[in-house]
Design a protein that fits this description.
- The structure is a homodimer.
- The first copy, chain A, is built from eleven helices and seven strands.
- The first copy, chain A, is an alpha/beta fold.
- In chain A, a hairpin with a 5-residue loop joins β3 and β4.
- The longest helix of chain A has 20 residues.
- Chain A is globular, with a radius of gyration of 17 Å.
- The model of chain A has no long low-confidence stretch (mean pLDDT about 95).
- Chains A and B meet through α2, α7 and α9 of A and α2, α7 and α9 of B.
- The structure holds adenosine-5'-triphosphate (ATP) (2 copies) and magnesium ion (MG) (2 copies).
- One magnesium ion (MG) binds next to α1 of chain B.
Chain lengths: ~260, ~260
């Protein structure tokens, strides 16, 4: 049974999509079977993996509204062991469309159920909000990976996110746990990064990944070529950091 | 009659809040009367101006749900000519609470109406989504200022934002116009920034501000002291850039 990991943080621009793309690609490069799901109407994960929005096709929107399996909307990617469920701009209206519907928080969980045994890891890229799409991801997930930019506004949102997780664990998904907090866009030279990093490590202790992701412009360039960083520039610090993170997750997995 | 400017972009982390705080503070330093409204449940604008969430008080949430004037929730700030309408986490549920309500898109416009003549500029900081809060801001606004990070994912979202603006202009607010696209977090040294900047200037021509905002860690440090950049470090490149932007907007204002 594959592990479902939601990549979530309501603060915008902290590296959710960059982490989903590059962690999934790094695990697939290690020959693990991986599925990534784009639950953000912006569709950055979909285009970051080279699938422009132009083609008319099925997406996560159809799977959720038709209560169908996500397998009905699968796409291949440039990486052998990596499959993608693309996003669609119609996801914007889902929250209103499902008002009043029974079990609307479990739509994604039900659509993922038939697909889980085909993959070892399933990542869900969340939008920057705590609305129905993110709640669906947190109800479908075994764990949540929280990318965190080492800056003040990102720190501020963390307590809100943790409070939401507690509420979800109490009411909708008792099994959910924190996979880890990932420090992203780290610029070792600034005091701000150092200060935030030490505060986070003190507060979250062993729930913070050892691996940190440095600020590296190559990571921001790769999506314009529709490629994960390991296909764009494997020698870059960004690529090495995500390969290291994949190793850390696989070791943690083996320990059980 | 004051000008209402929505600061909007559904892409996360592009500098909406940083621009709202520092542009408003720079105009207030030039003795213009300015009101900033925090329409993002994250409340970064509120805390970035030194008003922690702890105090029990009225917020934008009460003004919108009670159909009261925003003046019923006003706070002072460290800057004489700058007033604030704070956010509240209850704003997260507004979209669901107002489902089916007549004219739900105009709540903010109606709450701002009585306050407009007291200010020359009124800025609305939007959340990273195109949901009801941002639609309310776009229905209340005379113009929209679009902060844009010079990176691929931010570029991708621009066409979606412009399509939404056209739809709002056609159906809900025929008077809305683009104040300008502001290039933020510009790192002159990278090809990516140069490439994105030239594409944007070609596409948007005179609707792109001459002023650009450089990446400057001082801008990211200032919010942890609850201060706009001009009170935290007036000599920094970030402070100078926002003062220059304020001048550009005031000159544009005088030309009519
Ligand atoms: N480590 C890094 N170094 C440099 N740039 C980065 C890094 N990680 C992400 N970026 C860039 O920063 C921007 C924000 O990252 P990304 O889009 O992945 O964040 P997000 O949390 O998914 O945003 P949103 O909240 O809009 O979904 C993107 O332009 C991305 O290319
Ligand atoms: N020019 C700049 N140079 C360096 N850091 C900046 C700059 N502008 C903003 N920042 C920092 O980048 C992060 C994102 O900026 P900000 O929070 O203002 O964006 P936003 O668009 O309001 O995000 P959200 O989508 O979550 O509302 C913040 O930590 C902020 O302090
Ligand atoms: Mg994203
Ligand atoms: Mg903001």
């Amino acid at each position: 049974m594959g592990r479902v990991i939601a990549v979530a943080n309501q603060k915008g621009g902290v590296g959710k999509t960059t982490t989903s793309i590059n962690l999934a690609a790094s695990l697939a490069a290690a020959e693990r079977d991986v599925l990534v799901i784009d639950a953000d109407p912006q569709g950055n994960l979909t285009s970051g993996l080279g699938r422009k929005k132009a083609e008319p096709r099925r997406s996560l929107y159809e799977a959720l509204t038709e209560r169908a399996s996500v397998e009905s909307a699968l796409l291949t990617t440039d990486i052998e062991h990596l499959r993608l469920v693309p996003s669609d701009r119609n996801l914007i209206g889902l929250e209103i469309e499902l008002v009043g519907e029974e079990r609307r928080e479990y739509r994604l969980r039900e659509s993922l159920e038939p697909a889980r045994q085909g993959y070892e890891f399933l990542f869900i890229d969340c939008p920057p909000s705590l609305g129905l799409l993110t709640v669906n991801a947190l109800c479908a997930a075994d764990t949540v990976l929280v990318p965190l930019q080492c800056e003040y506004f990102a720190m501020e949102g963390l307590s809100e996110l943790m409070a939401t997780l507690k509420r979800i664990k109490r009411t909708l998904n008792p099994a959910i746990d924190v996979e880890g907090v990932l420090l992203t866009m780290v610029d070792e030279r600034t005091n701000l990064s150092q200060q935030v990093m030490s505060e986070i490590r003190e507060h979250f202790r062993d729930r913070v990944f050892q691996t940190t992701i440095p600020r590296s412009v190559r990571l921001a360039e790769a999506p314009s070529f529709g490629k994960p960083i390991l296909l764009y520039d494997i020698k870059s610090r960004g690529a090495q950091a995500y390969l290291e993170l994949a190793r850390e997750i696989m070791i943690h997995e083996e320990k059980g």
